Amino acid sequence: MHRALLLFSGGLDSLLAGRIIQDQNIEVIPIKFITPFFGPDENAKIYAREAGLKEPIFVDITKQFFNILKSPKYGFGKAANPCIDCHKLMIEECVNLMGDFDASFVVTGEVLGERPMSQNKNSLKTVAEQYENIVLRPLSAKLLRETALERSEVVDRDLLEGISGRSRKRQKELAKLLNIKKFPAPAGGCVLSEKQFGNKIKKLIDLDMLTSDLCKLIKRSRTLFVEKYNNILITGRCESENQMIQDFADELGIAYFMPKNDKGSYLIPLKEAASEEESIFYARITASFNDEKGKEIEIVLSDNSQSFNVLQLDREIINKFLFT
Ligand code: SF4
Predict the structure, then answer these.
(1) Strand, coil or helix: 316
(2) In a domain, 198, yes or no
(3) Which atom of ligand 1 is nearest to the CA of 191?
(4) Residue 46 alpha carbon to ligand 1 centre in Å
(5) Is 155 within 8 Å of 26 (Cβ atoms)?
(6) Is residue 32 predicted with pLDDT exceeding 90?
(7) CA 83–ligand 1 middle distance (angstroms)
(8) Residue-range definition of the domain harbouring residue 74
(9) Residue 196 belongs to some domain of the structure
(10) Which of the 8 DSSP states describes residue 238?
């Protein structure tokens, strides 16, 4: 029996691609890649199981992903999403895993023309150019050049599909035919394709501060960039975000700004303030997010090394520092 690795996102396309191949009496092992921007996802396990596929294997590719994020050969999409490089990387990583699983090819759920940047004919060719004969796209195979897998009858080309475009009509028909009832709604891409988050990530890259922990922290908190000091600030909007800042700072052994009255946000600058003036400025921003209004507020550094009695800054000034 042949065995294939399925590049598995958890979405309908990859569920269908997996089933189409599995139903040809080929063992399919779903591989779900993980970075701080996507996966691991418990739902992916459920969708795979309900579709009759094996449980996905999660593989962390953060290190390799950061490399392409810092310098994507094929550029970014609308935000910080390096989609072509990302597809290419995932296919390469799957190919690299083939030996570990004794698999003879890789299956993807790519659909020709479904995504303008990463799934047109050129980009499909680009992402798997050197793997033409071991990467199979069952959903669009009939519109693509026949692979060696089809020629040698490892898979039956007649049972593959010829889907193109963004309408999901055929995918829905196939889901019915294959009795796949549970699948997620189509998503517009990962969090990197969101403009605001993408801008935060690009700034982390500019400042050479791209780490998993920071990516997670800026994903879930209010983030500001102060150009004058070339620094990113993170402030909590609620108790749990303050706790997150506290945990992050404790782990790295750095100090954060907090109100003495404990009635508002904590603030952590990603680079330590380089002057008294800079520290006072951050203390004033911290004071601006305090529940007490219109008076001097005492802000302290969490390591008790400094304290500042400062006035709040105008919200209009603060708003200019927020990522949009
Ligand atoms: S949207 Fe995100 S996960 Fe999807 S291809 Fe683009 S970068 Fe990769």
Answers:
(1) helix
(2) no
(3) 2
(4) 21
(5) yes
(6) yes
(7) 5
(8) 3-189
(9) no
(10) S
87 lines ligand 1 (CB under 6 A): yes
CA distance 111 to 113: 6
Q: Is the pLDDT of residue 39 over 90?
A: no
**pLDDT tens per residue across span 118-167:** 778 788 888 888 898 899 999 999 999 999 999 999 999 999 999 999 99
Tell whether 40 is covered by a domain. Answer: yes
What separation in Å is there between the alpha carbon of 188 and the centre of ligand 1? 9
* Position 40 confidence tier, pLDDT thresholds 50, 70, 90: confident
Provide the greatest CA pair distance for the chain. 79
Instruction: Please tell me the distance between residue 221's alpha carbon and the centre of ligand 1 in angstroms.
Output: 22
Do 182 and 264 share a structural domain? no
Residue nearest atom 2 in ligand 1 by C-alpha distance: 190
54 and 184 housed in the same domain: yes
| End-of-domain residue from the set 168, 189, 210 | 189
- Which atom of ligand 1 approaches the CA of 118 most closely? 5
224 with 274, same domain? yes
- CA dihedral angle for residue 253, residue 255, residue 260, residue 263, rounded to 10 degrees: -90
The answer to whether the CB of 90 is under 6 A from ligand 1 is no
Ligand 1 atom closest to the Cα of residue 193 is 1
Q: Are residues 11 and 89 in the same domain?
A: yes
**Cβ of residue 189 lying under 6 Å from some atom of ligand 1:** yes
Q: Total structural domains in the chain?
A: 2
Q: How far is Cα 23 from Cα 9, in angstroms, rounded to an integer?
A: 19
Ligand 1 pocket, 82 CB below 6 A? yes
Quick one: which of 110, 106, 97, 2 has its CA closest to 57?
97
Termini Cα distance of the chain: 52
pLDDT at residue 108 is higher than 80 = yes
